[in-house]
């Protein structure tokens, strides 16, 4: 297109799209379809008025202030390399190429200098611990020229949802209220045309205890048998546990209560209480009933066999009291006081018309 004073704009002499450069780096303004003539004058200017370089046939190059050590001009194409970029190099660039005896061609483009992104971080507010049911804000920031941010959670793109709000510039992610499912690895990716950076943050949601109960535990055992009661609770961090037996606290903080050799006194009501030291919550389980029963034997009324059964009872820890149950009739015998007369007492307690009795 011909303009006044013999100037015209060269079609595609410089790229239509803006150029991007990194702070401290370099960029090349590459001309396209330059005049084929060898003898020509090339002028580069910045923001229309600031001279960068002028090259004329047979004359030394003329440099604008501050450009002599920073530019290189390609004599055949008129392309320009600009080095050691600074932020103030952002702006409009124009080249005018005038062949000897020909019309001038002019092209324009723009340059945006970006500071590379560095030091990316995700900062939670408030500081941990983060507790279920409360609010948390994650702030993604970095040094440099930030054009866009994107959020991901556990490798999946994250967008606003029922309890998630993301600011317009995507700098902050607000979760209200925080749920257990919000725990995971958050990633913020920051991008500009010359660099990118990522920041990660692992969000731990503290909650509980919940679903506290005594599970997989026996309700009835034989005396002398080993038993274990197990308390379960859903909690982050892991809960501490206390046990109660018939209203009396059992020493220890383990989720399991084990006794190697049960006694009759172990019968009764058990509860466990789970405590989360971070959330401050404390939940008690429902009552678990445990019954400790004696071993059952059936013998005839032979005196020797009766004494042998008593010996077995003593071995099982029944030294103090033996309960004899026969056809609904109960006799209590103190072995220590009645050991010498035990056989006689047992025989007298059983009617001849029955063939046997039970020992508990």
What does this structure look like?
The structure is a single chain. The protein has 360 residues and is mainly β. It has four domains: 4-114, Immunoglobulins (Immunoglobulin-like, Sandwich); 118-203, Immunoglobulins (Immunoglobulin-like, Sandwich); 207-292, Immunoglobulin-like, CATH 2.60.40; 297-359, no CATH class. It is built from three helices and 32 strands. Strands 1, 2, 4, 5, 6, 9 and 10 form a seven-stranded mixed sheet that branches. Strands 21, 23, 24, 26, 27 and 28 form a six-stranded mixed sheet that branches. A hairpin with a 2-residue loop joins β18 (184-192) and β19. The protein is rod-shaped and about 120 Å long. Residues 1-10 and 297-360 have low confidence and may be disordered. Keywords: Disulfide bond, Glycoprotein, Immunoglobulin domain, Signal. Residues 116-204, 209-288 form the Ig-like domain. It comes from Hucho hucho (huchen).
Report the strand count. 32
Tell me the overall shape.
rod-shaped
Low-pLDDT runs of 5+ residues are 1-10, 297-360
Number of domains: 4
Indicate the percent of residues in helices. under 10%
Level-1 CATH class name of the largest domain: Mainly Beta
Major sheet: 7 strands, mixed
| CA gyration radius, whole angstroms | 45 Å
CATH superfamily of the largest domain: Immunoglobulins
- Average residue-wise pLDDT: 84
Distance between the termini: 116 Å
Keywords: Disulfide bond, Glycoprotein, Immunoglobulin domain, Signal
Protein name: Ig-like domain-containing protein
Pfam families: I-set, Ig_2, V-set
């Amino acid at each position: 297109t011909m303009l006044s004073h013999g100037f015209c704009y060269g079609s595609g002499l410089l790229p239509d799209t803006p150029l991007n450069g990194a702070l401290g780096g370099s960029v090349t303004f590459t001309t396209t379809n330059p005049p084929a003539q060898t003898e020509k004058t090339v002028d580069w200017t910045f923001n229309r008025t600031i001279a960068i370089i002028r090259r004329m046939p047979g004359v030394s190059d003329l440099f604008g202030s501050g450009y002599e050590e920073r530019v290189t001009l390609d004599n055949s194409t008129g392309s320009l390399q600009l080095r050691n970029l600074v932020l103030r190099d952002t702006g409009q660039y124009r080249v005018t190429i005038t062949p000897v005896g020909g019309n001038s061609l002019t092209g324009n483009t723009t340059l945006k200098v970006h500071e590379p992104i560095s030091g990316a971080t995700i900062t939670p507010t408030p500081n941990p611990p983060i507790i279920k049911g409360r609010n948390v804000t994650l702030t993604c920031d970095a040094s440099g020229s930030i054009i866009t941010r994107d959020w991901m959670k556990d490798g999946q793109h994250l967008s606003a949802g029922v309890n998630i709000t993301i600011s317009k510039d995507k700098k902050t992610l607000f979760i209200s209220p925080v749920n257990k499912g919000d725990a995971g690895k958050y990633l913020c990716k920051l991008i500009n045309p010359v660099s990118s950076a990522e920041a990660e943050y692992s969000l731990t949601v503290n909650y509980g205890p919940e679903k506290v109960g005594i599970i997989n535990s026996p309700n009835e055992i034989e005396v002398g048998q080993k038993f274990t009661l197990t308390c379960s609770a859903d909690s982050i961090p892991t809960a501490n546990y206390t046990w109660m037996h018939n209203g009396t606290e059992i020493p220890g903080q383990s989720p399991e209560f084990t006794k190697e050799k049960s006694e009759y006194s172990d019968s009764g009501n058990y509860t466990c209480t789970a405590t989360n030291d971070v959330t401050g919550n404390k939940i008690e389980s429902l009552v678990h009933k445990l019954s400790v029963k004696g071993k059952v034997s059936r013998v005839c009324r032979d005196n020797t066999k009766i004494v042998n059964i008593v010996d077995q009872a003593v071995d099982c820890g029944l030294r103090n009291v033996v309960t004899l149950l026969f056809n609904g009739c109960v006799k209590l015998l103190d072995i220590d006081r009645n050991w010498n007369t035990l056989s006689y007492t047992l025989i007298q307690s059983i009617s001849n018309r029955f063939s046997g009795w039970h020992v508990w």
